[in-house]
Amino acid sequence: MLSQLLPMLAITFTVFVLFFVFMGIGYMLKKQPLKGSCGGVAKLMGDERCSFCGDDPNKCDTLVAEQQKNALKAAELGKSV
Known about the structure:
- The protein is mostly helical.
- The protein folds into two domains: 30 residues; 44 residues.
- It has three helices and no strands.
């Protein structure tokens, strides 16, 4: 019985590790937060307003653009010093 269980556990663990590795690589390449439905779970619980995006799904995109601009400004300041 143990000889059948160990390979199954090893495969399951490997799949989970690969899943998280690929999620990390995707995040590093795109530099964007994970996207989901705006307030998905909150709306199920009765909250009508999304506390993260303020019911504006494009807000995350503008925040990422602002963060990139700030990072470029910070890099320029670091180089000139």
